[in-house]
Structure formats: C-alpha cells, structure tokens
Amino acid sequence: MKAVQYREIGKGPEVVEIDVPEPGPGQIRLKITAVGLCHSDWFLMDLPEEQYSYGLPLTLGHEGAGVADKLGDGVQGVQLGASYAVYGPWGCGLCHACAQGAENYCPHAAAMGIAPPGLGAPGAMAEYMIVDDARHLVALGDLDPVESVSLTDAGLTPYHAIRAAQHKLYAGSTAVVIGAGGLGHVGIQILRAISPARVIAVDLNEDKLALAAEVGAHETLISGPETAAKIRELTGGLGAEAVFDFVGAQPTLDMSREAVAIDGYIHIVGIGGGVLPTGFFSTPFGAAVRAPYWGTRNELMEVLDLARVGAVSVHTERYGIDDAVTAYGKLHEGTVRGRAVVVP
After folding, report:
1. String of b and e for 99-120 (b: at least 16 CB within 10 Å)?
2. Hey, what domains does the chain have and what are their CATH numbers?
C-alpha cells in the first residue's frame, strides 16, 4: 500500500510502498478515507537529530478517518464497514485521567511506550492503518470524512482550550483568536457556537483574516506592534477576557500578555516555541496562563455533534496521496487556506 512517511532526519515526507498491516488482538484495521495535515507534523520533521524521538520510518497523520476493514480477536463494539474518526491522544486506558476520557493527559503513556498515531505510532497517512483499541474510534455516521477528519485535532484542540475558559466568555466579554489558520478558523466558529463573546481575530495574512470574517469573527486585525493596543481600544481599555494563541511564537505571546484583561485567561495552543513568564511583574493581576493539549474523547464527540448541526465546519483543500508532499510543502509555506486533507 502507499503511505507517506518521514524516513530520514531533515529530508521531509516521502510517498512510499509498504506492506498492508494486519490487526492483532483487540486492534482494528481502518481503510483510510481521509487524513488531515498539521503543523505538528512539520514540528517533528524540523527537529534536529538529537531532539527527534519519534522513531523512523514514521508513517505520518494524526488526523484520521476510515472505514472499519478488519477486526482483531476480541474486538467488540466496532461494526465492519462503518465510518469512524480516530481519537488521537492514546493513553494507558486505566488511570484516573483515562477513566475520564482525558487520555490527552495520561501520565503513564510515555513511560509505557504509548504514542499517538503519526506522532510515534504508525499514522493515518496511508491506505490502511491500525487502531490499537475500540475506545479510540468515534462513529462518524453520515458526516463526510473529508470535511470532518480535521475536527479530530483542528476542531478538538481549540474546543478543549475554549471549553476550559468558557466561564470567562460571558455576554459582553471579548475573546481574541491569534492565528486564523487551520485551528484558528475552527476556534472562531466554536466560540460563536458555544459562547456570546465578541471575537477578535488576529493574523499576519489578509486572506486568513478574510476567512476569519467569513466564519464569524466580529473584528479582524493585522498582527503587528500596535495590535495589543488596538485590542485594548476595542475593549474600552480593559483587554480581552480570554486570548487563544494558535501560533505560540514569542511575538504573539507578548501580544497576548499585553492584550489580556485583569483576571483573564491566556491559552497557548500553538507550538511556535515562545515562552511566556507569568507573575506580578509580567501578567495582569489574576491572569492565568495555560498550555492545553489536544482534547478528551467526550469533547471529540461534542465537536462532531456541532458539525452535525452545521455549527462548525472546516475549510479544506483536498489532495491525493501522491500529492501529499506538495500539500506538506504548502503547509510549510503557510499558503494552505484552512486545512489540507489527503484522500487516499
């Protein structure tokens, strides 16, 4: 079968031929119908050799959807031929966090050698993939897998970040979304769907700001040295009750600190390498800084339910698996509008 793998440090992704995998006991084989591309893929492929720990070769793709094709011994609750989304942050399944569906915060996964697909385990950027357990599948039903596959990360991650700050998003409040790309444009829709907050979108790219306005941002601002001051001006000098930074670079984190209100929230979602010190001489009184990671199983179900009622959708660019390297190039250049999806 064809797969897109990272095979050599510094060389980027390649389309290769590998064997079709066979499911072991408790495992499920999916025939992949769609797989999303993510900046996290480039984050790991850009790591120097001394920092790379994900194994080689690595089949990419942590946003996956497919049809149940073959079941290993003992699998229950999975219907052959049915369409499923893959819940990506795999945990041990037994600890307190996992028992709550929060496998994204499993404290034992790394020590047990458990890794998410595409981020250590073989991912979905292939014609077939193995899912380790039935609990990591969420039924898609009649949702289009191509249109909804990116919700497994680009929807789940912002949803998790926003839900954790939802009590700050009361009527009359302001939420700032920094970065209106793959995650940010979905985050704007989630904010509009589950809160009455005014949404201000910030980005360097006019086209992405146009997309932000299309999906519901009340205000759009070009990112620059004066952006935080403009946010304060729009909020009567108070600042935003919640800032969601989907970039995470040092300039955007500095902007977040300058734009957040007293007792507000800064949620750093992007992995742009910045660091934000917090304390009496850095952030406003009472302001909380948090780096949420991915999301819970039940939150993925909720995101897909939002998609079913038309409250959330993903702007997608479709590519065949033979064009996946081109798609990754566009992602690296920042020229993808919304989310790139490979359809094997």
Report:
1. eebbbbbbeebeeeebbbbbbb
2. 2-153+295-343 (3.90.180.10), 157-290 (3.40.50.720)
